[in-house]
């Protein structure tokens, strides 16, 4: 779980089919010691984990990634230069506990990542 260490939610908004969060990134997080020293860049896997965590928060349910139909990393995020980003999720619940998701990670002036894919709800 990255929330609370890698990022903190500054502000969020939710509807029945969307979740938006303004995140403060922690530039002092240990992941940046290896990715990369002196020139930190948010790893793609951390972006995907953040999307999953925010989707779970929006749905109030654990999810598992099933398919990434499209995943585009457009601009690198340097947490020193860009300490806050906005993550916007649009989602629809489909048959068989499948959730179709469109996500964007951006700032006012840049789009860092676009994602389209499906997750499944984890039911016990």
TrEMBL record:
<dbReference type="Pfam" id="PF22818">
    <property type="entry name" value="ApeI-like"/>
</dbReference>
<dbReference type="InterPro" id="IPR029069">
    <property type="entry name" value="HotDog_dom_sf"/>
</dbReference>
<protein>
    <submittedName>
        <fullName>3-hydroxyacyl-[acyl-carrier-protein] dehydratase</fullName>
    </submittedName>
</protein>
<dbReference type="InterPro" id="IPR054545">
    <property type="entry name" value="ApeI-like"/>
</dbReference>
<dbReference type="GO" id="GO:0016829">
    <property type="term" value="F:lyase activity"/>
</dbReference>
<feature type="domain" description="ApeI dehydratase-like">
    <location>
        <begin position="13"/>
        <end position="91"/>
    </location>
</feature>
